[in-house]
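Hey team,

Filing this mostly as a record. A colleague (T.K.) asked me to run one chain through the structure pipeline before their review meeting, and I want the input and output archived in the tracker in case anyone asks later how it was produced. No errors, nothing strange. Just documentation.

Input sequence:
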Amino acid sequence: MSKKKVIAAGHICLDITPVFPAAEIEHLEDVLSPGKLVEMREADVHTGGSVANTGLAMKILGADVTLMGEIGRDAFGDMVLNILKQYDAESGMLISDQLSTSYSVVIAIPGIDRIFLHNPGANNAFKSDDIPNDQLEDVSLFHFGYPPLMKSMYENDGTELVNLMKRMKAAGIATSMDMAAVDAASEAGKADWEKILSQALPFVDFFVPSVEELCFMLDRKRFEEWQQRANGKDITEFLDVETDIRPLAEKCMNLGTKVLLIKCGAPGIYYRTAGKKTLREIGGSLMLDSEKWADREGFERSYVPEKIVSGTGAGDTCIAAFLTAMLEGCSLEESLSLAAAAGASCVASYDSLSGLKTLDELRKKIKQGWSKINIDQKG
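Output structure:
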């Protein structure tokens, strides 16, 4: 049976990660403070963003994926293309003579959530019209990632994003969308995300944000309360499914998405699906078993990682495994289990791909009794 075709489009950049000494640190100010010289190890340089993280991960996992993102004709762009060429994945990229390639400096301190110093570059100009119609032939799934880091997708109340997802649905293609964290003081942070999502989610079949991103966009007051509760630590350590996560999920389902995965960091993944009638509206020849996928809700706990080096891209590879397994016809249960396993594998490396294992390798490790993390998740 031939593989279902996928387009992974959206944000792509070059990630530069300075490697800190291998010692867990409790507070950011213990390492980064004005005037302090911090002795570092080497820097890890790799592609980042949803296109590279999720798209390449799906390709490695066996999916038939075309990557589509915009980069500049510059040194960073050459580095991105050279990395993509290693996976025979560069042919769908768009190259601009006027715009620069996006980059991120990733501050990944052991024991502390990541900080990103980001320049969006050419991502800001990405438009629906950049994707040729002939590229959409026989495509089953269109995955779009990180619209909050792409100005064209959030300006004008997200008109371009809505048009993009609507175009894919009109072409009979199933859609999935991932989000990204933004600074509240930035232009993207000031956008009306509740309005944007209310218009876009009716055209999104699989919505896969992180819990922090989702709360920031749909319930800013609740998000600020979470920040106070966490007091500088990882928010996901303090969340309760019933009182914190489920109200956000309810909003998303009411806005029109069909399958919702909320990435909750180290604890795991909250999931919820729509009813049978709604699931049958998913196109793209996916042929989901609506009887078995419909009206499901739960929390998939993460697996215990062998070691934790960095969380960079772990959420993206988690989603890549879920989507790839789903495209292969796996059940919801197995797709979620493989997603959790992929995320746990990837935190063992500085980039999203080095620690990635094949689906069969993940299945084998799970079958051998890979332990789940021990958390008190209610719900």
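Quick notes for T.K.: The longest strand covers residues 139-145. The mean pLDDT is 92.
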